[in-house]
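Lecture 7 notes: from sequence to structure.
We start with the chain below.
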Amino acid sequence: MNEMSFSTVSVNVQKQTIWDVLLDRIVHPERYLIGVLESSIIKKSSDVIIRRMRTTLGEVIEQITIDVTNWIITSQFVQHPLFTGTTVNRILPTQSSAPFSVVTFGRAWKPKDPAFTLQPPVAGAKEELLYTKKIAERFSAR
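Predicted structure tokens for the same chain:
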């Protein structure tokens, strides 16, 4: 597996607000991720969700684990047309009274085809994170 590559940003909202946005990303990925045409939840338990997405690249199935205690959401590709790997979204610890949160998105993706010369879209994690920040801050301002 490739080394995990992280992007981190401070978000001007309370922890719970950004957490709610991260949970919404699971149910409605088309609102946050470019190329997602539709999605559905195949299976759901208290801390694990299996999600299917129809994307411009093909079908993607992920196992998503939600660690509420540690503010971590981990997604493992079960099926992806181009990559294997893991994505981790985490809200880092800050003082409980802090009016901001620190969020990190990490990716460890590996191309299925060793001849595939394009790098996995790890750089896209930063843009994804900034877009999520914008939504959370806009939601908080309401």
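Points to note: The mean pLDDT is 88. Residues 15 and 96 are 8 Å apart (CA to CA).
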